[in-house]
Automatic annotation (TrEMBL):
Residues 32-51 bind DNA. It comes from Pseudomonas ekonensis. Pfam families: TetR_C_7, TetR_N. The keyword Cell inner membrane does not apply. This is TetR/AcrR family transcriptional regulator. InterPro entries: DNA-bd_HTH_TetR-type_CS (IPR023772), HTH-type_TetR-like_transc_reg (IPR050109), HTH_TetR (IPR001647), TetR_C_Proteobacteria (IPR039536). Residues 9-69 form the HTH tetR-type domain.
Length: 202
């Protein structure tokens, strides 16, 4: 990569980080491209060179959030491994992601920005659902293998995710609580596995 390209990448990242900070502090509607440019230490023209509109810039923040969620996707279902072992890997990856301060910051920006815009919120929920399809697919495969009860896989997926988000996501979003420490992560994961497998394992 050439030096000018690296500089361009650095400016783009500075703009994104400035936008996250401004959206988080002031909300989407109040934040201006002028303010983002000033916070990033670049010209307004540079901001528009990277992002044609504030909506495009916000979409990039969403993309970074989705990318973090996708990164925790793990190996596909295996008929040869214990269900608890496979499910623990998936659920622990999600809990550890929710303990990442960068992820929490992005999530706060998204939630704060969409809470007053039903259209944006619906788009966010739809895209989040697409990114969380991995666990649903795993449940569906375990059902096809005769190891889990034939319930709605999406419903079951939302159940176990609700169990971990009740401790590792929503308190951090709504009440400003600290991310779960490793011991609490382990407790939350193992408890969620106990409840899920007691209900659905054949």
């Amino acid at each position: 990569m050439t030096a000018p390209q690296r500089l361009t990448d650095r400016k783009r990242e500075a703009i994104i980080q400035a936008a996250i900070a401004e959206f988080r502090a002031n909300g989407f509607d109040v934040t201006s491209m002028d303010k983002i440019a000033a916070t990033a230490g670049v010209s307004k023209r540079t901001v528009y060179n990277h992002f044609p509109s504030k909506e495009e810039l916000f979409a990039e923040i969403l993309n970074q959030l989705w990318a973090r969620i996708s990164a925790e996707q793990t190996t596909p279902y295996s008929a040869d491994l214990p269900l608890r072992e496979q499910l623990r890997e998936r659920v622990m990856a999600k809990v550890q992601l929710m303990a990442d301060e960068n992820f929490l910051t992005l999530a706060r920006v998204v939630i704060a920005t969409t809470i007053h815009s039903p259209e944006r919120a619906q788009n966010m929920v739809a895209r989040l659902g697409e990114r969380e399809e991995g666990l649903t697919s795993w449940i569906r495969a375990a059902q096809a293998d005769g190891r889990l009860k034939p319930v709605d896989p999406e419903f079951a997926s939302q159940q176990i995710q609700g169990l971990i988000k009740a401790f590792g996501f929503w308190p951090q979003m709504s009440m400003g609580r600290a991310a779960l420490n490793p011991d609490m992560q382990h407790t939350v994961v193992e408890s969620a596995l106990d409840m899920f497998l007691a209900c659905y394992q054949l």
